[in-house]
Design a protein that fits this description.
447 residues, alpha/beta, 6-stranded mixed beta sheet, 4-stranded antiparallel beta sheet, 21 helices, 12 strands, 53% helix
Length: 447
């Protein structure tokens, strides 16, 4: 059912004649058998290693050329017209064809004035949509969408509509693609195709105008995820409603603004017959929990950078000790930003209480500069610390360039460091009578 103009536009062809005709034609163009093998146009029979056992890789198939962005052919896809297996044969990766970085029909879609792209599951869906007038339809080359392809789409599209098949495989592909677009600036929506298995079938049944209406009403990524969660629960039962609310709150807490959360909380209340105020209260708690989890992850990520990742902790190895190192680093950044806090810090901790050796040396150098009446800054510390230590302090200052560190923050950093000290150090500074009481309390707890 394809028009002549669509066939010409996509360079479609048919390869019925087999290997001998293919070889004769391409040899006439100057290609060698080794080059045809490398391009994946011909293959060698497994039953015979002789070179005369080559055969046409795309015999008896509709041929779909794959173009790069400049319009050059870099590969092919071949589809049988009958029931032979495999149904599809595609070019292997070559020096010019990297599937993870190529998008089918992007060379045509990029010419469109529209910045809303339609991401399809297969080549034939793309061709059908272009024939129907939707000239930004594209598909991923290879078996699944890749991060490189998402990045490539982001150079041309402001919005991407996921238009996969309605079967289980298509729904899994949709969920996976939404995850890949999570960190992309591109707006993503999901097209639900009713009463048809794919875009091609829908357009043949209902026409291009109805398909355009579907596009304009496509669900955003969050609405799609919520609908999938809702479909998995029986809202007629109390247990089903509670499970649905719990999963929905997990989605809402992590990806939307306070205004959107209020709107979706209202929808949840209507769907489940639960008070909106109760849902919002639970949602606020989930948001705070996510924020705490994100802060802990940020600390872990920061500590993986530079020398802190190589620290051998003398005690309390684990997340708590890493949090102490983070506090030490933030404390040094605060002192470099505001040296007036040095007396406050010096009265409560000394260099020997630091876990991070670099921060220990930095603290000692800052204290010495203050005692000598000198300026506390990176140039002044340059003569007291080595290049790696100065580099670490420079990173800390850059990391906190947009952070307003206050005296309250300094107090929090100091408290975290003090709470981490072993009890043996605390006991060493106790008067004799107090030490006796402390030892007795340990014995009582042991008993």
């Amino acid at each position: 059912g394809l028009s002549d103009s669509t066939i010409r536009r996509f360079g479609l062809g048919y390869a019925p004649a087999g290997y001998s005709a293919c070889l004769h034609h391409l040899k006439g163009k100057g290609y060698t058998e080794d080059e045809l093998l490398a391009a994946g146009l011909v293959k060698q029979s497994r039953r015979d290693n002789a070179k005369n056992s080559l055969y046409d890789a795309f015999y008896d198939r509709v041929m779909t050329p794959i173009f790069d962005l400049r319009g050059g052919i870099i590969g092919f896809g071949g589809r049988v017209l009958g029931d032979a297996k495999p149904k599809y044969v595609n070019s292997p990766e070559t020096l010019v064809y990297k599937k993870s970085r190529a998008m089918f029909a992007l060379n045509l879609a990029k010419k469109s004035a529209s910045r809303r792209y339609i991401l399809c599951e297969g080549y034939m869906d793309v061709i059908s949509l272009h024939q129907a007038g939707f000239d930004t339809a594209v598909a991923a080359c290879g078996t699944a969408l890749t991060p490189e392809q998402v990045k490539l789409l982001g150079e041309y599209a402001d919005e991407v509509v996921l238009c996969y098949d309605s079967d289980e495989a298509g729904q899994k592909a949709t969920a996976r693609s939404l995850g890949l677009f999570a960190n992309s600036p591109v707006k993503v929506s999901v097209l639900n195709i009713p009463n048809a298995k794919d875009p091609d079938e829908f357009i043949k049944k209902f026409g291009a105008e109805r398909f355009d209406q579907l596009l304009n009403g496509a669900s955003n990524a969050l609405e799609y995820r919520l609908s999938r969660v809702r479909a998995n629960h029986d809202l007629a039962s109390d247990a089903g409603r509670l499970d649905y609310i719990r999963e929905a709150i997990g989605l809402l807490a992590g990806v939307v603004t306070p205004t959107e959360r209020d709107v979706y909380a209202g929808r949840l209340a209507e769907e489940t017959n639960v008070a909106k105020s109760a849902i919002l209260s639970q949602l606020d708690g989930a948001v705070r929990q996510n924020a705490r989890r994100a802060q802990r992850q940020k600390q872990r990520d920061i500590l993986k950078e530079g020398a802190a990742a190589q620290i051998k902790l003398p005690y309390g190895a684990g997340e708590r000790a890493l949090a102490v190192v983070y506090a030490e680093q933030q404390l040094m950044a605060a002192l470099l930003r505001e040296p007036d806090w040095v007396p406050l810090v010096k009265a409560r901790v000394g260099p020997g209480q630091f876990i991070d050796p670099q921060m220990q040396k930095a603290c000692s150098a800052i204290f010495s500069l203050c005692e000598e009446g000198g300026l506390v800054n990176l140039p002044a510390l340059g003569s007291r610390l080595d290049e790696q230590e100065i580099g670490q302090l420079s990173q800390l200052l850059a990391r906190n360039a947009d952070v307003a560190l206050t005296e309250k923050d300094v107090e929090l950093f100091l408290s975290r460091m003090e709470q981490s000290q072993p009890k043996s150090r605390e006991a060493a500074s106790m008067p004799v009578q107090e030490l006796d009481r402390y030892i007795q309390s340990l014995r009582d707890r042991k008993r």
